Amino acid sequence: MESRLLPKHYLDAEVFKREQHLIFRRLWLFAAFRITLAAPNAFATRELGGLPVLLQNCDGEIRAFENVCPHRQMPLQKESFGHARMLCPYHGWVFDNFGKVKSIPHEEGLYAYSVEERAQLCLKQYSVQELGNLVFVNLDSDPLPFEEQFSLGLQEKLRVISGHFGAQAIHTVLPARYNWKLNYENVLDYNHVPYIHPKTFQPLLRKQVAPTVQELPTSASLEDLNGSTSEPGRSRHDLAALSFWSRSPIHVEQWPWHEFVDRYGEGDYYYNFFLYPNVNFISLGGLTFLLQQFHPIAPDVTEVRFTLCAAKETKRLPGLPAILWGHLKGEVAVLREDVGYLEALQAGLHPDAPRANHGRYESRLIDVAATYLRLMSEDVA
Hints:
This protein has 381 residues and is of the alpha+beta class. The protein is built from 11 helices and 16 strands.
């Protein structure tokens, strides 16, 4: 089947601008692991939907604000992670846990705001949804219900698996020269693994077959391949049908530290969660948990954000930071293999390029494209 997406959907600046407004500023977006925001005044800064976002631990509750002081538009927090109260470094304005101005140095003599003017001096606040140890943000003033994007069954699975997160997480970013949709399409395409990752990821798989889909199969062809059935009442074109999970048998090399963590699951499985629009969350044997987010920078530029943690320690592991960095190094190496090919794919695109021709196994790519066009208010006939 010929793809419904045109080359312009991967190349055009106007299309990219519309994506930011119609997809990334309307859908729920992953923002951080809750464990990184556990301490009082812990914060994380993100760009989401082209907007600067500040996540702050406000007396135990995670709140999200636009990371812009209403005085002169200075970011309140400049680092990606840290611990600090909400204080503008430019002129010393302090904000309370609800984003309202708490104090302004020399306010009476220098500013002379009226009562009405001062009441308007607050940070713009965004909606936050915590799901276990995963924190999501919605930038829309009237956000869609969370269950419209992620089914209740998937939410419960994410809540349980993220409950096994340990207290330490590490992060890194990999810049890449391709459109964000190519990366999301790539993780949905299991058939590329033996060709792109024959020495890194492929040898770990015990069965060289398509993974068994456990949640929300979206088309008859996928049901035939995996013997699965759809969730009652769900259409393959529902937004929530784009997010699902699977597991595949995998070989996990045993290390001594495995005995000292609260492992998730039933043994040596590769757990794979696809969270639309731009997240692939995976667990290797319930021992390590990696979230990849394909963050759009420009039509042909994507920032791949990695966040990795291990399962909760049952005994203190002094070498855990080194263990995590070793695992992250391996995950980045696999992604770099993808990057080389995806950058070549992007470089070969041009306005008159032919559309992709999907095979039977690529039914999810077809469904993703159809829903994408609907979100973009484009004809999907």
